[in-house]
Every structure is written in structure tokens, then in C-alpha cells.
Amino acid sequence: MCVDISSRWTETSFFERLSRRERDPAVLWLARTLIFHEPTENCRLRAATRADFERLPAHKTLFKAGPHCGLPIGNLTSQFFANVYLDALDQFVKHTLKAKHYVRYCDDLMLLSPDKTQLEQWEGQIELFARTHLGLGLNNRRKLRPVSEGIDFLGYVVRPEYLLVRRRVVSALRQRLVETEKTLRELGLAEYADGHKVFIWPEPLIKDLRQWLNSYLGHLQRASCRRLRQAIRARFGWLDEYFRWESGKPELRYPTPRLALRFSQQRQSFMAHLPGHVILIRIGNFWQMQPGPIREIAEVWARRSILSLRFHKRDESTARRLLWRAAVPVAWIGETGRRVGVIAERALICRWDVRQAGASG
């Protein structure tokens, strides 16, 4: 049986329980300050508005909780306080009900028994204890089911010999990747019939993608889902353009050299990460070509006397056409607008490669 405790606790009752055990005035002052702080007053909303919170279910936001009720989950002490408050429930389950197989993590708890009737009785006794002694209730999402069907607990489906990820988690991951793929294509990611593939590198988007993808993969790696990870990389092949996977986590394939205090260090970093490419680096109003497969482009390049290894930005469109015609891998390194000391910071903004027509990214 899996049970979710309703998080409508009262601050006063919790502080009273805590003060029975703790006598240090300094600790009690700090606890009182944290417990009775009202996070909905004078709060700053960053990536959301008050209207966004109003659309949430009542049990998901403190803006809809009663006075001095609810748990501010962003507060680092909240999980500890929840364990302290529910210690009485643990003692009741283990010493009064004498449940042998009992697990609790904050407000999620699970009991195992070979006797279904026994579980039903425990459920009623736990509900009564939580209401009368803690002022809490059991969430209506609680389930009573055979272990052979798997136990939905803490984000996973727990089976006797392995873990599976919830379908909801997998669907959410796929949806976010689909949305990111759509955004990248709108920005300029495109495949051409002659085999060229252009990759735009919007740094903020890729940085954000790496953060939440790491979070999902960290969740997935605890479950038995090797084939799922392989299927995701096969479906979203463009991920391999932006990331390496040697450590099992997405590491940037072409990182921005943020600690490079000299232009030569920036250039060496890009050349190391982009071997075999013609590399063009923006320097103010000019583009400077770095050593690369120059022989492949020399014949095409020589036909245009206006172009050299350093050319003005007004000749960029001409350079792009010539490089495209030369059919060589090309990387364009632009200025981000930030500075490292006195040196302009630079990052990959666009890269194209030559692949067989119809090849996947």
C-alpha cells in the first residue's frame, strides 16, 4: 500500500512539538524564525507571475493554503522539519501497528504485507492517527495493489528485481525534446538535399537544455532503462551534435573557452575541439580564417581577389557561398558581448558539415 500524507500541517503544532525536545534558546529562536516565516508575503516572482500560481491546483501552491498552513518546499529545512513532525507517525506504525515492512520518505510512505485485510485495517488506523494527533489527512491518491504489478513510489515503478521510470516522466522528457527540436529548426537548423547540414548554436538554449537533460538522465540512470536512453538518442539524433556522452552525461561538444585570457588561447581551444574545420573567428568588424583544410578551398578562394584570410563583415555572404561551394566543414565563431578581462569572449554560433545526402544528424 502506498500513501501520500496531505501536507497541510500547522506551524503552531509543529513548533510546540519541537520545543518539547529542544531547550537551546538560540536554536528555538532560529526554528521559530524559519517556521513562522510567511513565504507568500513580500515575495519576488522571477520566472512566473501570480496568475501562473493561481492556475495551479490548491494543494500545489501556498497562495491557496490557509493561514500558517503548508510547507515551503524550497526552504532547505522543510524536508528535515517534515521528518521531525512525522516521527510520531513512524513510531505509531512500527511500535503500535508493528508493521514489519514500512518505508517513508517525507510525506510518501509505503507498507507491505501478505495480508490484504491487514493493510486495509492499517490504512484506517493510520488515517485516524494522522488526523487526531497530527492534524493531517491521507491523500486520495493512495493505492492498494499487488507487488507483482509494481509499486509507484518516489518517481519510479518499483518491481521486485528492478526499477522502471514512470511513463509520465518519459512522456515529459520526450515532449521537452520535441519542443527544443522545433525551436532549433526555427532558429536555422536545416538539412539540405546536397548533403550539407547546418547547426546553429544558440548558447543560452543549449546551456538550459544541458541542465534539464542532466536532471532527467540522473533520474533515468537509477532505473533499468538502457534501451530507453538508446531510443531517445536515436530519435533525437541532433543531440549528438551538441553533446558528448563519454561520462554518461551530456558534456558540451564545443565548449566556450570562458577562462581564456588571450585570443591565442581562444583560438587554440576552438581548433582543438573542431579538428578538420575551416574556422572563422570574429574580431570586431572582421572575420579571420584559421588554419584548416585550406587546400580544399584554395582554388575556389583564389577566384575572389576581394577575399583573404582576413575579410570585412560586409563580405561575409560572399565568403559563405564560397565555403559552401568548397564543401568543407566550417565553424563560425562569434563574439558573445561579454568580456574575459580585456578580451572579448567568443563562442561557436554556427557550424556546417558535409554528409551523404539523406544522412541523419
Detailed description of the structure:
The structure is a single chain. By secondary structure, the protein is α+β, with helices and mostly antiparallel strands. The chain has helices at residues 11-21, 25-35, 50-54, 78-85, 87-96, 116-134, 167-187, 203-220, 226-235, 239-242, 263-273, 294-302, 316-326; strands at 2-4, 101-105, 108-112, 151-153, 156-158, 163-165, 190-191, 196-200, 243-244, 251-252, 278-283, 286-290, 310-312, 330-340, 343-354. It has three domains: 2-139, no CATH class; 165-252; 263-354, 3-Layer(aba) Sandwich (MutS, DNA mismatch repair protein, domain I), CATH 3.40.1170. The chain is built from 13 helices and 15 strands. The strands form four sheets. The chain has a seven-stranded mixed β-sheet with strand order 7-8-15-14-11-12-13. A three-stranded antiparallel β-sheet has the order 1-3-2, covered by helices on one side.
